[in-house]
Design goal:
Family: Belongs to the NAGSA dehydrogenase family. Type 2 subfamily.
CATH architecture of the largest domain: 2-Layer Sandwich
Structural class: alpha/beta
Function: Catalyzes the NADPH-dependent reduction of N-acetyl-5-glutamyl phosphate to yield N-acetyl-L-glutamate 5-semialdehyde.
Radius of gyration: 20 Å
Largest sheet: 8 strands, mixed
Low-confidence stretches: none
Distance between the termini: 10 Å
Organism: Pseudomonas alkylphenolica
Strand content: 15-25%
CATH topology of the largest domain: Dihydrodipicolinate Reductase, domain 2
Helix content: 25-40%
EC number: 1.2.1.38
CATH superfamily of the largest domain: Dihydrodipicolinate Reductase, domain 2
Order of helices and strands: EHEHEHEEHEHEHEHEEHEEEEH
Pathway: Amino-acid biosynthesis; L-arginine biosynthesis; N(2)-acetyl-L-ornithine from L-glutamate: step 3/4
Mean pLDDT: 94
């Protein structure tokens, strides 16, 4: 039986290390990683990527583009965990729950772009609602989200976890120039005709995202209520292995969101909260930025590819 060869390029970064950990010890595939002395050798990296059945790129954007450009073997399949190709024509967006056909598209694709962490939550909430006509494509949306500091990559983790280094505490809001690189990804894959406002932040905890999107029912099509929005999401994700839609919550019964509630999993927990007296709805997503927001999603996409390869 052929054991597919999987090459992780950039396996010393936060995402790469976790992907390696998730795949380590499996007997249905072979893992290829480069020793320290070869990781920055362009020729050795090109040889490795061209020898692989599937290459998973855990690299900065420019390095990911260079790695793809070095592929000469037409049989090599790529999962790119960077943001280099998330809106690039010819690449399949690696969110299997996007629609009914997306998992099969990923399974057959040669080039898959892993979603960004924040966009995973925003698109999972918005795409079904926009596609169903319940949220207008030109709705003036604002996406607010807080992530654990690991969302800032290896440097942020070291800053917070190195003894004797004073790291920022509390919550730091960034992206204040309203030009975050995730915005085009959210707009394109959520089916929006206008740019949403995106306000991200980092908290002084390691991992986990809480993302919220507020809606005014007066700006929605006539007859669209929180119940209809919730029902649309519930139907879209019915039977999904990793995406759960919580029961509709009203008023004082609504709990607080814990961004760390599903850490160390590939789960994505969606919910709809409503205050009908005020005509307001809140869409929420909770997930692990290192799980469904990164390494978990990459492994989920790899599983689809491996199943198709037989």
């Amino acid at each position: 039986m052929h054991q597919p060869l999987v090459f992780i390029d950039g396996d010393q970064g936060t995402t790469g290390l976790l992907i390696h950990a998730r795949l380590h010890g499996r007997d249905d595939l072979r893992l290829l990683t480069l020793p320290d002395s070869e990781r920055k050798d362009p020729q050795r990296r090109a040889e490795a990527i061209n020898s692989a059945d599937v290459a998973i790129l855990c690299l900065p954007d420019d390095a990911a583009r260079q790695a793809v450009a070095a592929i000469a073997n037409p049989q090599v399949r790529v999962i790119d965990a960077s943001s280099a190709h998330r809106t690039t024509a010819g690449w399949v967006y690696g969110l299997p729950e996007l629609d009914e056909q997306q998992a099969e598209r990923i399974a057959q694709a040669k080039r898959v772009s892993n979603p960004g962490c924040y966009p995973t939550g925003a698109i999972a909430l918005l795409r079904p609602l926009v596609a169903a006509g319940l949220v207008p494509a030109d709705y003036p949306l604002t996406v607010n989200a807080v992530s654990g500091y690991s969302g800032g990559g290896r440097a942020a983790v070291e800053r917070h976890e190195t003894p004797g280094v004073q790291a920022p505490q509390g919550v730091l809001v960034y992206g204040l120039n309203l030009d975050h690189k995730h915005v085009p990804e959210i707009q394109q894959h959520a089916g929006l005709s206008q740019r949403p406002v995106f306000v991200p932040s980092y908290g002084s905890y390691r991992q986990g995202i809480a993302l919220t999107i507020a809606l005014q029912t007066r700006l929605l099509p006539p007859g669209v209520s929180a119940a209809r929005l919730h029902d649309c999401l519930r139907q879209h994700y019915h039977g999904s292995r990793y995406v759960q839609v919580a029961a509709l919550e009203h008023g004082e019964t609504a709990p607080m969101l814990d961004p760390q509630a599903v850490n160390d999993s590939n789960d994505l927990r969606l919910a709809v909260f409503a205050n009908e007296a005020h005509g307001q709805v809140l869409l929420t997503a909770v997930f692990d930025n290192l799980g469904k927001g990164a390494s978990g999603a990459a492994v989920q996409n790899l599983e689809l590819m491996l199943a198709a390869m037989g």
